Every structure is written in structure tokens, then in C-alpha cells.
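Appendix B. Chain record.
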Amino acid sequence: MSNAAVVVSYNRRELLEKCISALTQQTRPLDEIIVVDNGSTDGGPDMVRKLYPGVFLFETGANLGGAGGFAWGVELAAERGHDYVWLMDDDGEPDLNSFEELMAAVETSDDTLSFAASMVTTHDTGTPNVGNLPVLSTDMQHQLKAQRNGTIAVRAATFVGVLVNVAVARTTHLPQRDYFIWIDDMEYTLRLSRLAPAVMVSKSTIKHPMNAGGSKDMKGRLFYHLRNQIWVIKSNPELSLPRKIFDSTFYVVHALGQGPHAADKGLWARSIAKGIFEALFRKPREEPVGSLVRSLPAHRRSEILP
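C-alpha cells predicted for this chain:
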């Protein structure tokens, strides 16, 4: 069994170095560490080449957002022959036994798991990070089976320490690059958990800064928030049409509620209009595993494939 960690990075060199350092010191060694750099200009790639020559560095050449970075991360891990891929941002800092605990849960599970998520904690108190809580499964049978294995059954999780089963990932498309930022992780892990059970392993912990969620003025990012939430709702086969309309309306109303707090009213209005339009009339691409590498020139493919 071969396992890789994927770190998606963009202009956070110091945090990236801390993350890689923690990965190299795991009590259960990883077979490979892959860094997907999204066009950083702060010297991050040079730092990786100098300090960590054994790390596989893939430079996208442009900022593809977290969604694009993780799409490439899953793609690279699969095409380089790994069985499991541990996904995280560069501001994640896994505890040194984190990977060992994840793999123990995977290997002792009665089920083939689609993914196993680390518990995300804060740096200061070590308590669960409320900005990165998983979506718990309401399936009592799954919860009881997970409990017997010392885990918690979940439906979705953020890309902060998620160990993905590559065999299951090959049966569906990659994380959708068109999301760019936000909610791509929830869409992808929710999709995986429909294919096979998923768990959170509380003994496996990864520190992550608290998200600045709850902002009353998302500025231009309101577009991604609104569009992507509606995309997830539209693609959910478990929801009826009335429920999809209700849930989508909730997010539109939430976006409208930011108006009084928006510093740039024009940007706020354009973000809502564009978000609704793209949510209704555009679909994110569905790209199978292997398709991204095949799109590269031959010389780049030869650098990636083992």
C-alpha cells in the first residue's frame, strides 16, 4: 500500500515549511509528499527545492484556487500510483501521529472507506476548530459501526487533513476546478461518501487557523459563496426540487442581507447577479481521474508519471 500527502500552497512560504516539516516527521512515514503550488511569488517553490529535495513539487503556473489545486493533487497522487492521498492546505499543521491514527482506522475498519478525516483543532487551545467541522452522518447503522472502531461516521469534511481512498476516487470525477474557492471540499467529500462510508478519526488531529467566517461583507468572494452553494444544492440527488428551491433561496436571501454592510454596493450587486446567473446557467466541469495529466505536453507528463 502506497500513501501520499498533498499540500496545496499559494504565497504562504513559512506556513508551507511548517506543514512539510510536520509531514516529514510523521510516526508512520508517508511514501511521498506532493506540493501543488498555485503560482506563488514569495519563494515557496524555491524553498521546497532547497530544503526538501525529496518532495515532488508540481507548479501549476497560475493561481487555480484551492479547487484547482486539489483537483491536481488527487490527480497526481492517483497517476503516481498511490492508494491513499492525504489532502491539506499549506496552513494545516498535522500532529506527528496524525497519519498513523488515520491509517489505523482505515486498516481496522470493517468497511472500505471512501475517506477518513482528521479532527481539525485550533492552535491555541487544541479544541475542535468550529470553522472546519465535518457534516455528521445521520445513518444510525453507520454511526454504530464507526463507534465500534473508535471513529465517527461523517458525510462531508473540509480539505484539512482528509485521507481519500484513491480506488473510490477513481470511480467518480475529480474535485471540480470551476468552484475555484469555497465549498469544493464539501461537494467532493459528500460525493465520495455516497459511494462508500466515511469517518472522522478524533485521535488524528491537525491544527488550522480559525476561518474568518461570518463576514458581513464578503466583497467579490460573495460570488463564489453564492454560486457554489447553489451548485452543491442542484447536484445533490437526495434533495427534492422544492427543497432545492428552498435551500437556494436561503443563500440568495443571505447574500442580499449583506447589502447594508457592503463597502462597495456595485461589487455586491454584481456578485449576486453573477452568482445567480452562473449557478442557474452554467455547470462545473466533471473531469475523470487521469484527464488532467493527459492534457499536459508530453515532456510534462514524463516528469509526473513514475
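Further analysis of this model is presented in Appendix C.
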